[in-house]
Amino acid sequence: MRIAVLALQGAFIEHEQMLQHLGVETFEVRQLADWQQPKDGLILPGGESTVQMRLLRQLGLMEPIRSDISAGLPVFGTCAGMILLSRGYLDAMDFRVRRNAFGRQLGSFNAVAPVETVGSDIPMTFIRAPYIEEVLNNQCRVLSIVDGHVVAAKQGHRLAAAFHPELTNDDRMHRYFMEMVC
């Protein structure tokens, strides 16, 4: 199994380390030539979604990534990556997000909550986190709610989380994604 990790900006190294801990080969996507390598899935990390979108466009990565996700490439987006998967961005999942929904940097926090099909006590690190403010159809399934807000969802082979599982020692979210890839 070989997973591409978008490495333009944000917490991509932590995702790579988590996957390597699980015995999964990774490679970084920084330019179009990187994207053309064989891959079984993609991780869109946290960071700054506006910067990531601008770089995706400038580097010619936007349409190839969008096309491969539409064709069935499994993808896992965390925090800014969740924003990228939403309507109005890559349009890969049927939800709308509220950016920086829990507040700015000072509004960052940790929580423990259940994630359906993953586990009951998942540690969650929220940093300037978004949340899903509207699920647009029943193909997009809510997996977790924190403080009354949707913070994780799944649609086909697409997984989105408002939090940063890569910043904890708990590998269950990544294991769940690997099960989706297989």
Task: Report what the structure shows.
By secondary structure, this protein is α/β, with parallel strands linked by helices. The chain has six helices and eleven strands. The chain has helices at residues 12-21, 32-35, 49-58, 62-70, 80-85, 172-181, and strands at 2-6, 25-29, 41-44, 75-78, 95-98, 109-115, 119-126, 131-135, 141-146, 149-155, 158-161. It has a seven-stranded mixed beta sheet. Helix 1 links the parallel strand 1 and strand 2 (25-29). The longest helix has 10 residues, at 12-21. The radius of gyration is 15 Å and the shape is globular. The termini are close together. 45% of the residues are buried. The mean pLDDT is 95.
Provide the residue-averaged pLDDT.
Answer: 95
Terminus-to-terminus distance: 8 Å
Number of strands: 11
Computed CA radius of gyration, to the nearest angstrom: 15 Å
Strand content: 25-35%
Rough outline: globular
The helical percent reads: 25-40%
Which sequence of strands runs across the widest sheet?
2-1-3-4-11-10-9
Q: Which class best fits the helix and strand makeup?
A: alpha/beta
Order of helices and strands: EHEHEHHEHEEEEEEEH
Tell me about the largest β-sheet: 7 strands, mixed
